[in-house]
């Protein structure tokens, strides 16, 4: 487990394999931390950062898979998606009125349009 970890390679592995390797990294991190406390070599203390980043990458892939499974099951049920699964976009876009809301007219506006239609004028040539 010495070379740099690439996330795109992790995405092709099975869940149980990911969990097993994650546990291996956690054990390695424990041994490195113990070595650091007991005054181990500088190479071991320098490796702590690499192992922590590797653990983060494994957890990222696992959590993304779990999120995708939950999202797929909610869509399958036809339930409303929780806020965490909705498109983030920007605050202004989220607050903006929908196209349907923009087309709606008030009762007063409808009466005015019915009773006072636009006048048509004939122009001399």
Q: Give the overall shape, derived from the CA principal axes.
A: elongated
**What's the helix-strand series?**
HHHHHH
Q: Please state the structural category.
A: mainly alpha
Low-confidence stretches: none
Structure described in brief:
The chain is mainly alpha-helical and 125 residues long. The protein has 6 helices and no strands.
Topology:
Elements: H1 7-10, H2 15-37, H3 42-77, H4 91-95, H5 99-103, H6 107-115
Helix pairs in contact: 2-3
Question: Could you describe the 3D structure shown?
Answer:
The chain is mainly alpha-helical. It is 66% helix and 0% strand. The chain has 6 helices and no strands. Helix 2 packs antiparallel against helix 3. The chain is elongated and about 100 Å long. The N and C termini lie far apart (89 Å). The mean pLDDT is 91.
Brief descriptors of the model:
mainly alpha; 125 residues; 0% strand; 6 helices; single chain
């Amino acid at each position: 487990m010495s070379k740099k970890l690439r996330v795109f390679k992790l995405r092709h592995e099975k869940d149980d394999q990911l969990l097993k390797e994650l546990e291996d990294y956690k054990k390695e991190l424990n041994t490195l931390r113990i070595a650091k406390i007991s005054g181990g070599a500088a190479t071991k203390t320098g490796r702590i950062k690499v192992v922590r980043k590797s653990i983060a990458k494994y957890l990222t892939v696992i959590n993304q898979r779990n999120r995708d499974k939950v999202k797929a099951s909610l869509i399958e049920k036809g339930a409303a998606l929780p806020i965490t699964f909705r498109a983030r976009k920007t605050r202004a876009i989220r607050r903006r009125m929908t196209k349907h809301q923009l087309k709606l007219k008030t009762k007063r506006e409808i009466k005015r349009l019915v009773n006072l239609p636009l006048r048509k004028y004939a122009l001399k040539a």
